[in-house]
What does this fold into?
Amino acid sequence: MDFAGYTESQKQKLVELLLYGMYLDGNLSAIEDRKIGELLDTMNFASEAARNRFLDSAYTRTRQRSSSDQGIRAMVEGMSEIFPEPDLRRRTFNLLNFMLASDNDVIQRERALLTALREEFKMRPATG
It folds into this structure.
């Protein structure tokens, strides 16, 4: 996946969004883990220790979030300001969708996250 065009702060939020989606089903796949690693590789950390601190902090914030409908909505609230460009919104949505489908089983809470993000980004549902 190409992460060009994302700012550092957008990449940080993207990491949290992807981690949140990964934890909704409690099944972390190797593909999900690899994609998070690829994203982290594009980020400018001062050191490996700084990278690990960021990831630990992102994991902690993610695990503390509720997986209820309200928690899902709270997770995506404000994402349209973080990702204001239509291209980045589409790419962010597609990456999340890919990650959630990587284990070949998208559960109801994962679908709710995709729906909430689609609504936040004011994207039309796919047809066909």
Observations:
- Residues 8-120 form one domain.
- The chain has one domain: 8-120.
- Helices lie at 8-24, 30-41, 48-64, 69-76, 79-82, 86-101, 108-120.
